[in-house]
Specification:
single chain; 319 residues; mainly alpha; MetI-like fold; 2 domains; 13 helices; MetI-like
């Protein structure tokens, strides 16, 4: 398996190179530049031009791209024009918040989706199945930003059950106090994102269970007099959960890359909020770094899903 993993990683190299070119060129096609916001009635145009020339903005795009790639291999993602900090420092301050929020959302999603999917698949066609289907219609059809705004309004502002912004309380001191405060700030956005992300898992698990119930090994177990509870726990549920486990790699990377809306609504200082801020301020260095990071994360998410599936199911080997 290690040889296959190394081969897959090597195949990713030209994909990452193509991705980096596309990301860099598209970022350069954005209107304006990071120095446009500094222009005022008393600003000397020559000073702005000197800043642009010092930043290399007058060089051809391929020259700028080459300098960016060389710096990238040295661990230098450039300088944030608006935050006046290295991009690696800016991303380092934000990525941890997004990762923890994404993990909490994934835990909530599985905690809700797996029992509902099992119930729906086992009792397909029943009232419980129809009730879960209605729940799925709501979670799939409702716009995420509307749910986030309503949750923030009722649970944050009206009931005051949860904080409405930030990651840690100012007066939290010590490891346990800071950890509990961080969890408290993540609970509402993580729970809402997790519940809204249950649709695909419920439907996929339901379909897998319904399909597994008609397999020959299930009929054989039933004909031997195996109790129904054991048939489901040892055969149907176990085999139906294998694709769900493999799908975790895609879900983790998808949550990290798709955190823009929830972080913006809840004023949560993560990668998604930083991405919106960088776009509005035309901070090219931050935009290209975030998009490139998200693209690489998606490639490794695909590899991670294949690895998980090969580990949980010995019959499968990644090729």
């Amino acid at each position: 398996m290690w040889k296959t993993i190394i081969r897959r990683v090597l195949i990713m190299i030209p994909q990452i190179v193509i991705l980096s070119v596309l990301v860099f060129v598209l970022a350069k096609l954005m209107p304006g530049d990071p120095f446009s916001g500094t222009i005022g009635p008393n600003t000397d145009p020559k000073q702005i031009e000197a800043l642009k020339r010092a930043a290399g903005l007058f060089d051809p795009w391929y020259v700028q791209y080459w300098h960016w790639i060389v710096n990238l291999f040295h661990g230098n993602l450039g300088q944030s024009y608006t935050l006046k900090q290295p991009v690696t420092t800016v991303l380092g301050n934000r990525i941890g918040n997004t990762v923890w929020l994404s993990l909490l959302s994934l835990i909530v999603s599985y905690a809700v989706a797996i029992p509902l999917g099992m119930t729906s698949g086992r009792h397909d066609g029943s009232r419980r199945d129809r009730g879960i289907a209605i729940f799925n219609y709501f979670t799939f059809g409702l716009p995420t930003f509307v749910v986030f705004l309503l949750g923030l309004y009722f649970f944050g502002y009206q009931l005051n059950w949860f904080p409405t912004s930030g990651t840690v309380s100012i007066n939290a001191s010590g490891f346990f106090a800071e950890a509990s405060s961080r969890l408290y700030h993540m609970l509402l956005p993580g729970a809402l994102a997790g519940i809204l992300g249950t649709t695909s898992t419920i439907q996929y698990l339901r379909s897998e269970i319904i399909d597994a119930k008609s397999q020959d090994y299930v009929r054989t177990a039933r004909s031997k007099g195996v109790p129904t509870s054991k048939v489901y726990s040892r055969h149907i549920f176990r085999n139906s959960l294998l694709p769900i486990a493999a799908f975790a790699g895609f879900q983790i990377t998808g949550l990290i890359g798709g955190s823009v809306v929830i972080e913006q609504v809840f004023s949560y200082p993560g990668m998604g909020q930083l991405f919106i801020t960088a776009i509005t301020s035309r901070d090219y260095s931050v935009v290209t770094a975030i998009v490139l990071f998200t693209g690489i994360l998606a490639l490794f998410g695909s590899l991670l899903s294949d690895i998980i599936l090969s580990l949980v199911d010995p019959r499968i080997r990644i090729e």
